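User: I'm writing a short methods note and want a consistent example. For Fibrinogen C-terminal domain-containing protein, I'll paste the sequence; you return only the structure tokens, no commentary, since I'll be parsing the reply automatically.
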Amino acid sequence: IVGDRVFYLILQRLSGNVSFARNWTEYENGFGDSSDFWIGLRIINELTGSTPRLLRVEAVTWAGVFSACEYTNFTVAGASTNYAMTFGSYINSNMSSDSLTYHKGMQFSTTDRDNDHRSSSCSNTYGYGGWWFYSCFIANPTGQFRYSTASDSTGMIWKGAATSSSSEPLKSIRLMVQLV
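Assistant:
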């Protein structure tokens, strides 16, 4: 719940206890525990496929800086499109820049199913997580969990949330869709 709005978490990374280096089937079905999880592409499609939703991203840097942004009309299509993701507009809250538009329209990719626009797999190169990689990313919330602010392109990154470096790994991130 944010204010009087109800959201459904689709990704949450708070502790680093769960590895996001997973295969296609795991990303399709979901995985994790109560603090670190991916709800699954099938469920995200069920939540957004026929009814576009508002997507909210909340991130915290290791310096303790909280930032958030929202995207209108967020949808994830079905399995036949490799769960292609799109949205309407970026609504800036307090992030320094938009980190998702670069990924708009992309199909989902994992280490064992490469749907990005690069000749080599972005997932295998940048942290082994699944994501809507283009060539390769500006946002990579499924990268490796790092306990440091040192710039690291394989880490959990949302570039608009970083304060000192665009490749500064985050302390936590949550992606959620508004249900109504």
